[in-house]
Each structure stands twice: as structure tokens, then as C-alpha cells.
Write a structure and sequence with these properties.
alpha/beta; Rossmann fold; 5 domains; 7-stranded mixed β-sheet; 12% strand; globular; Helicase_C-like; ATP-binding; Helicase_ATP-bd
Length: 922
């Protein structure tokens, strides 16, 4: 039993310090001092990483989301400050940089912390600077004096190096940061952390790899069936034999629901139809939120893989009358929102849907996605972090590192649209999403809830939940900008050596064995397919090749006919007049419409008629809406006072349209027979050759054909694997050689020397860096005004979300239209140069934002710009921010005191206004 004297001694300052030293035995003085900054004990992996860092090693920390990895990064900050050196803290996105900057300012004060994100430049010479990874890469290539005294670089979310668009930047930084700088790499849990650590050890020297898979807040997995919440796993056994397995209740429930779905819904019994089984309906989103509230599982983030779905969910909650906040909380929310939006004009707030946004927030509900105005997104993040917002409906972009954890994460579906197809969530994506669940220091446990549906197999969910790690694969490749900067710094040979040190090459060398093994397996399978396709009447592989040639020719002819029909449709649009009633034959605007304005001369690709549909919608159509020629089916009078912006005018004219045009005309569709192949001599010859081939009469012809098609597909895949095996050795260096060959041919490099044009290219950090430099060199923008320049430069940063076959976008007329056409021609010339040198880096310029950029630079109002652009406020702001970034590079690359430099500055000033000016996050 402890004596009173002993207890009193233990409670004295000296006693408490002695107890503290006992707990922290083995720590260096910096770590001892650092631990006093926190009101909680550090975890074992944090202590291990900090000890390694204080001992002089670099570190790689791979741990789950929310486990406290950033403590190790903050220790590097502490070491820099105590040692009188510098630390750069890099993040993948501006939102994270802003968030980390605010955290460090609260701890160390604004005089010791700076921020560099492209949008913001605050105290850049401070000992601690938070920045995006691209900013550090650019500083390294420019040999910025700010690098002097740098001792630590923290790379938060380093697993971003797998990103196919931006991942190369992380490897560039790791390779090019001076050897004296220690790297602190913080990553989500990946399955090949040791492999990544080995590479870091090779290129950076001594690097400690610390992997921790323990979540500080345990995560429980559930499935929601209707409004019933099931545990995904149940414990079986006792003691050492205890283990988790899939909940058998879920399995039985899934089997029963599938059985019901297979019941014959159309079966008749005598004269009466049998009752249909009730179709499964997923629970309404308001019902899910109310169920979580009853279970004490709020606040929650529900991941919905579409922006429209997120906005719809908020509206559904509002219509259902959900209120998750008290009166006091609602008042606090309103005060915060009004303060944060005080710089936004009332007119812009109206356009941005501020009233509905605020009402939802006051009820504790919000959406969060990239289409929102950045200021609105920041407000949601701030209120959610403060516990005032209880239900957020978000796209997966929220899972990308922003500090916004919840008690519960809900996942509606296990597949998402990736831009090309619906694909299943990977274990890594599932882990990233559910990693938001469980707030350290607030929750004792986190919860992940998957909403059940007939297509959701509980075993599949268990597989995703049970796979807690995923591989980290490099996406590195040399770029034109990288090449001129590297050659300028170290020469071609040394640059090749540096690039061979990349993680991409490190992984490539290890992958050859596995690829060669797969080639051998494929070759064995090909022998079996060829055997199965054999025909006793002749060479079936020869016959199959003839069938493929016929199919290819038919497809080619179909494309030619389609092009001819589009030309005919364009000619027919030129004859339309206001008041003509037409049938729009296809697309989401199909149906009856009246022409308000023929739109002749508005676009370079042909007329773009403005019409009013029977649904009272005013739309600007394009040639893509008319796959065939159109003729008026009737005419109606348009009142002189008609205004497309007046809802009553639209309603009256649409009523006239419906009443005057007969029903049979509404349903009419012009159709034309298409003898696409009947008069093509090559197709006729190929068909005759097929009929004459010996195997054509085989009664097992289609069986043989299926095996031949499998052979063809596998042979194509195998040939690609063979080329990959052949190309693995020194693959990065060979690509670099081809890039340099392009640059030599175009005059950006002269042997080991970088020319003046090459130095200009070195200042352009853009996906279309070479096309930007060539446009500058050709003087394509020299005579443009500021709005025309904005339109042209936008084509180098914007990428449309529209499908490839969408209508050609509208562009400004005059000099900018000529410049844009010249840029597209220049891209074609560069593509030919790339093809000759066996590289393909440059995409075609995208003109989809040119008209919008032009109008915004001209000073048009936000509502007019958004109405015609079909963009959300968030997409618009982000596109303008990207454009401003490249315009800034044009200013830097253009000659001193040139007209172009002045014009680019004027364009930036003209565009940095309104919603663009008062948003801090891009």
C-alpha cells in the first residue's frame, strides 16, 4: 500500500516529471519536449517513427485513415524549429494545404508558418511552409533560393503517387530533393509498403518503414436492409478460437430475397392473374438518416457516386421535414454562414441557390461535391467538424484526405461510374471511404453501413471489408517540361540515370518475371483454342480472319453513312425559320419543339437553333441532336412580346404548341432505309469469298467461330504482354530518350544544352506544356485582346465531361476563333512528331470552356454565364482557377514588356472577380 508521503511525492512536480521520464525512456530530448505538446500519449508507431526521425533517418509511415500519422509530420516541423532549419509540409490538394496551414498557425503562430498553393502566397520564407506538392516540384526545378536551409520535407498522402494524372510529381520530388533533406512520407495502409520503403532506401538512404494496421477507433461493419440494421460479422468460438465470420442472418435474407425475385410475375391461375411479388425498394434516404439517428449513429457521411444524387438527397430530406438541429444550433449555423458569405453579392447568392443551401444547413443536412462553390464546400466542412451538421451526402472526393471524420459512413452502392463504365469499388476505395468513420477522441467506435439491394451480395461486402490494404503502383513517366528542366540542371546522361531511379522503374524490373510467366500460360491456352477451332473442311482461322475484315468494313461504311447524314441534317437546319414546329428525333431533348431562333452563323459547325420544347424548356440545339435531316411539320405564331426568360411566356407558347399540333404529328418520326452495305463492292466481294470458303458449309461453323474469336482476343492480349516484357528493361530511360528526340527535333534541346525556347518550356507546368510553348513560339496569341486570350488558353486546361460525340462547343468568332483553329492544327502537327518518335503525351485542345471564359473575361454576369455553359458553380470556379494558373505561367514565359504579357495580366485581372475572387480553395 502506498504511504501518504510516497503519494504526495509522486504528485509533486519532480515526481510527475520522474514518472514522465519513466514512460518515455529511450526518447531523445526533442521527442521528450514534443510529447508535452499533446494532451494524450502517443501510440507506439508514432513514437517509433519519431525516434527514427530524431536519430537521423527518413521515415515511411503507412497507417489507416484517422490513426494519427500526421503527428510524425508535425514532429519533423518541431525538429526544424528547434534546430533552426526549415521544414516544407506538402499535401496533394489545396484544401488540405489550407487546413494544415491553419492547424500549424494555431500551434506556432503566423510568423513561423507560410502557405504556398498557387492561389495563396503567405509568408513564403517562413521556417515552416505548407504547400502543394506541385509547388515544391516547381521550386526544385527553378532552384529557388527558398530551398536554402531546408532539412525536412513531409509528404502527406504520399500514396497519391499512384494517381495517373498527378502521381509523377511525388516521385520527381523524392528523387530531386537534396540528399541532406530527410523525407517524411505519410501513406494510407498499402500492401506493398515494404517495397516502397526499399525504393526510398535506395534513392534517399536510410529510411525506416513503420507499418501500423491498428485503427485507434475500432470500425464495425453493418448492412441496412430496409430499416433493419444487421452486423456484417458475428463472433464465433471462444478464447484463442474466437473469430469473426459473415452473419448467417444476412446470408439467409439475401437468398430469400433473390428467390422472391425469381418468382414468375406473369403466371396466370385460371382467368385471374396471380398477385405479383412486391418489388424490392431501397429505403428512402430520409428514412436511413432517421434510422441512424435512432441508433445514435449520427453524424454520418453518406457516399453517393453522383453530384446530382447528393443534391437530390438533400432535397428529399428537406421535403421529408427532417430536422437534426436544435434552435440554438440552427442560429449558430446561420450566423456562421452569413459571416462566411458576407463578401458574396446578394445577386450571386440568389444564382447559387443560397436560400435552399442555408435552409438545409439549419436543419443539419448538406451536400458536398466538386460541383459546389468552394466557399459553400468550406462552410460544410467547418460546420460538420464543429458537430453542427449531422448528415452529409458526398461524392468520393470527400475521402481524399480532408479532415472531416464522422461517427458513421453509409455507402449506397458498391459500384460507380468512372467516366467510361460502371465499375465495382476496389478494396482500397472501400477502405478509403469507410476510413472516415470514427472520430478519435470523440467516438469510442466507428460504423460503416452498406445499404442492401438485390445486387449486393453480403459475401462481397465482407470481402471488401476484410481486405484492409491495397497495392501502391507508380504512374510515373517523363514529361516535356521535366525533360528540359532535368537536362538543364544535370545534362542528358545524368538525367537518364536519375529517371532510372524512379519507383516506376524499380517496380518494372520486379514485374518482368510475372509477365513472362503469364505469357507462357497464354501460349498454352492458345494451343488449346486453336485445336478447338479446327475444322475438317479447311483452315478455319483463315475464314475467321475474313469475317473480321468484313465486320471492320461494314463498321467503316456505317461511319461514313452516318457522317453523310449529319451533313444533310446540317443543310436542313439552315432552312428553318422562327415559328417552325419540328420534331427533335434523338437525345434528351427529343420530341416536339418550336424554333425561336434558327441560330444560323452562331457556330462554326453549322446552325444551332434555339427552341422551346413542349415541356416549356428553352434549349440551344446542335447538329448532334439531329442524326438525320429535319423538316417543319407545322408553323405557329410567336408573339412579338415573347421572352425566353419569362416563365409565363414559355408556358403560354408551349400550350399553343400542344393544342395546335395533332397527336399523330407528335408521334411521327421520319425514317429512312439504309442500305449501308448493299452497294459496296468490297463488302460484296468479301461476302462472296466467305460463301466460297470450304468451311462456310460446316454445320459446326459457329462453334468453331466462338473458339476462333477467343483465340484472336487472347492472341492480341498475349502480343501486348510480349511487348511489355520486351519494353520493361530501362523503360523509363527509353521513354525519356524519345521525349528528348521530340525536343531536339523541335529545337528545345541542342545536345546537352537547353535553348532559349527550351527554358521557356521549362516554366510551363501543364499537361499540354509543349503545345503551350509552341503556341507562344508561333505567336498565335500575340494580337489577341484579354478575353480572346482567355478563350484560347482555356483550351489547354479544360477537359469536358461531355461524351466524345457531343455537339461541337460554341467558340467566340473573330481572331480567337482563328487562333483556336491554329492551335488545333498545331496539335495535329505535334501529334505527328510524337508518332514518329513513338510517344503520345498530348491530347487535343478542348474548346468546351472557350466561350464561357471569353464571356467571363468580358465581364458578363454570373447567371448568364452559368445558364449558357451548363456548368455548376463549383466546376466553373475550378475551371477559371486552372485557367488563371496557366495564364500566370504565360506571364512568366512571355518576353519582358511584351504585349502578350500585358494582355495575360489583364485577362487574369478581368477573371479574378465575383465568385472566383472570394473563394480560397480551388
Amino acid at each position: 500500500m502506498t504511504s501518504p508521503d510516497t503519494a504526495q511525492a509522486a504528485d509533486s512536480p519532480a515526481g510527475r516529471y520522474a514518472a514522465y521520464r519513466a514512460r518515455t525512456a529511450g526518447n531523445g530530448p526533442a521527442l521528450l519536449d514534443f510529447r508535452t505538446l499533446y494532451d494524450f500519449d502517443l501510440d507506439a508507431f508514432q513514437i517509433e517513427a519519431c525516434r527514427a526521425l530524431e536519430g537521423g533517418s527518413g521515415v515511411l509511415v503507412a497507417a489507416p485513415t484517422g490513426s494519427g500519422k500526421t503527428v510524425v509530420g508535425e514532429f519533423a516541423v518541431h525538429l526544424a524549429l528547434t534546430g533552426g532549419t526549415k521544414c516544407f509540409y506538402t499535401t496533394p490538394i489545396k484544401a488540405l494545404s489550407n487546413q494544415k496551414y491553419a492547424d500549424l498557425v494555431r500551434r506556432y503562430g503566423p510568423e513561423k508558418v507560410g502557405l504556398l498553393t498557387g492561389d495563396n502566397s503567405v509568408n513564403g520564407e517562413a521556417p515552416i511552409v505548407v504547400m502543394t506538392t506541385e509547388v515544391l516540384r516547381n521550386m526544385l526545378y527553378a532552384q529557388s533560393p527558398t530551398l536554402a536551409g531546408l532539412a525536412f520535407v513531409v509528404m502527406d498522402e504520399v500514396h497519391y503517387l499512384a494517381d495517373r494524372f498527378r502521381g509523377a510529381v511525388w516521385e520527381e520530388v523524392i528523387i530531386h530533393v537534396p540528399d541532406s533533406v530527410r523525407i517524411v512520407a505519410l501513406s494510407a495502409t498499402v500492401s506493398n509498403a515494404e517495397e516502397f520503403g526499399e525504393w526510398l532506401h535506395e534513392v534517399r538512404g536510410d529510411t525506416a518503414v513503420i507499418v501500423d494496421e491498428h485503427r485507434p477507433v475500432p470500425l464495425f461493419q453493418h448492412m441496412l436492409v430496409g430499416t433493419r440494421l444487421y452486423d456484417l460479422f458475428v463472433d464465433t468460438g471462444k478464447g484463442k478460437d474466437r473469430q469473426a465470420r459473415l452473419n448467417p442472418q444476412l446470408t439467409r435474407m439475401a437468398v430469400e430475397e433473390v428467390r422472391r425475385a425469381k418468382v414468375n410475375q406473369g403466371r396466370r391461375t385460371g382467368r385471374r392473374r396471380a398477385p405479383r411479388p412486391q418489388r424490392f425498394r431501397p429505403p428512402a434516404r430520409p428514412d436511413v438518416i432517421e434510422r441512424l439517428e435512432r441508433a445514435g449513429l449520427l453524424p454520418a457521411i453518406t457516399f453517393i457516386f453522383s453530384r446530382a444524387g447528393c443534391d437530390a438527397a438533400v432535397l428529399q430530406c428537406l421535403h421529408a421535414g427532417i430536422r437534426l438541429t436544435s434552435k440554438e444550433e440552427a442560429e449558430e449555423i446561420r450566423a456562421h454562414v452569413e459571416l462566411r458569405t458576407s463578401d458574396i453579392s446578394p445577386e450571386d447568392l440568389r444564382i447559387l441557390g443560397y436560400t435552399d443551401f442555408l435552409e438545409a444547413l439549419e436543419r443539419g443536412v448538406a451536400a458536398h461535391h466538386a460541383g459546389m462553390l468552394p466557399t459553400f464546400k468550406e462552410i460544410v466542412e467547418e460546420l460538420f467538424t464543429r458537430g453542427l451538421i449531422k448528415a452529409v451526402f458526398a461524392t468520393e472526393t470527400l475521402a481524399l484526405g480532408i479532415n472531416m471524420p464522422a461517427r458513421t459512413v453509409v455507402i449506397e452502392k458498391l459500384d460507380k461510374w468512372n467516366g467510361e463504365a460502371h465499375v465495382d469499388l476496389t478494396p482500397g476505395e472501400y477502405t478509403q471511404l469507410t476510413g472516415r468513420a470514427g472520430r478519435r477522441g470523440i467516438d469510442v467506435e466507428g460504423h460503416a453501413v452498406v445499404v442492401w439491394g438485390p445486387s449486393v451480395e453480403p459475401a462481397s461486402v465482407a470481402g471488401l471489408a476484410g481486405t484492409r490494404t491495397y497495392p501502391l503502383n507508380s504512374s510515373f513517366r517523363p514529361s516535356y517540361n521535366m525533360a528540359v528542366n532535368l537536362v538543364g540542371a544535370v545534362g542528358i546522361e545524368r538525367a537518364r540515370t536519375l529517371l532510372e531511379e524512379s519507383f516506376a522503374q524499380f517496380q518494372a524490373d520486379r514485374a518482368v518475371v510475372g509477365l513472362a510467366r503469364q505469357v507462357r500460360k497464354n501460349e498454352e491456352a492458345l494451343e488449346g483454342y486453336a485445336k478447338a477451332a479446327e475444322c475438317h473442311l479447311g483452315d478455319f482461322m483463315e475464314y475467321a480472319a475474313m469475317r473480321r475484315r468484313l465486320s471492320d468494313r461494314e463498321a467503316e461504311l456505317s461511319r461514313e453513312r452516318s457522317s453523310a447524314r449529319r451533313a444533310e441534317a446540317a443543310r436542313s437546319l439552315e432552312h428553318l425559320r422562327p415559328g417552325d414546329v419540328i420534331l427533335v428525333p434523338s437525345g434528351r431533348r427529343s420530341g416536339l419543339a418550336v424554333v425561336l431562333d434558327p441560330g444560323v452563323g452562331r457556330r462554326s459547325d453549322g446552325p444551332a437553333p434555339l427552341v422551346l420544347t413542349v415541356n416549356r424548356s428553352v434549349q440551344r440545339l446542335s447538329i448532334q441532336d439531329f442524326p438525320r435531316a429535319v423538316e417543319p411539320v407545322d408553323r405557329i405564331r410567336i408573339p412579338k412580346s415573347f421572352s425566353p426568360r419569362n416563365p409565363q411566356d414559355r408556358r403560354d407558347l408551349a400550350s399553343t404548341l400542344r393544342n395546335k399540333v395533332p397527336d399523330d404529328v407528335r408521334e411521327r418520326r421520319r425514317t429512312r432505309g439504309d442500305s449501308a452495305a448493299s452497294d459496296d463492292t468490297e463488302i460484296a466481294r468479301l461476302r462472296a469469298d466467305l460463301r466460297a470458303h470450304p468451311v462456310h458449309g460446316c454445320d459446326k461453323r459457329e462453334d468453331h467461330a466462338r473458339w476462333a474469336e477467343r483465340y484472336h482476343r487472347l492472341d492480341r492480349e498475349t502480343e501486348q504482354l510480349r511487348r511489355r516484357v520486351e519494353g520493361r528493361s530501362q523503360v523509363i530511360a527509353r521513354t525519356f530518350d524519345r521525349v528528348c528526340a521530340v525536343l531536339q527535333q523541335l529545337g528545345y534541346l541542342d545536345g546537352d544544352d537547353v535553348t532559349a525556347e527550351g527554358r521557356r518550356l521549362g516554366r510551363i507546368y501543364n499537361e499540354l506544356d509543349l503545345l503551350t510553348a509552341e503556341s507562344l513560339r508561333a505567336g498565335l496569341w500575340d494580337k489577341l485582346d484579354h478575353a480572346e486570350l482567355a478563350a484560347c488558353v482555356s483550351a489547354l486546361v479544360y477537359e469536358s465531361r461531355q461524351p466524345d460525340d457531343a455537339a461541337p462547343p460554341r467558340t467566340p468568332t473573330g481572331p480567337s476563333q482563328d487562333a483556336l483553329a491554329a492551335m488545333v492544327r498545331l496539335w495535329g502537327e505535334l501529334e505527328a512528331v510524337e508518332r514518329d518518335n513513338r510517344v503520345s503525351f498530348l491530347r487535343e485542345p478542348d474548346l468546351g470552356f472557350a466561350w464561357t471564359a471569353y464571356r467571363w473575361a468580358k465581364g458578363d454576369d454570373l447567371d448568364e454565364v452559368l445558364l449558357e455553359s451548363d456548368l455548376t458553380a463549383g466546376d466553373f470556379v475550378r475551371a477559371v482557377k486552372q485557367l488563371l494558373d496557366l495564364l500566370g505561367q504565360v506571364v512568366d514565359a512571355a518576353p519582358e514588356n511584351s504585349h502578350l504579357r500585358k494582355t495575360a495580366r489583364r485577362a487574369m485581372d478581368a477573371m479574378r472577380r465575383g465568385v472566383v475572387a472570394y473563394t480560397s480553395v480551388g
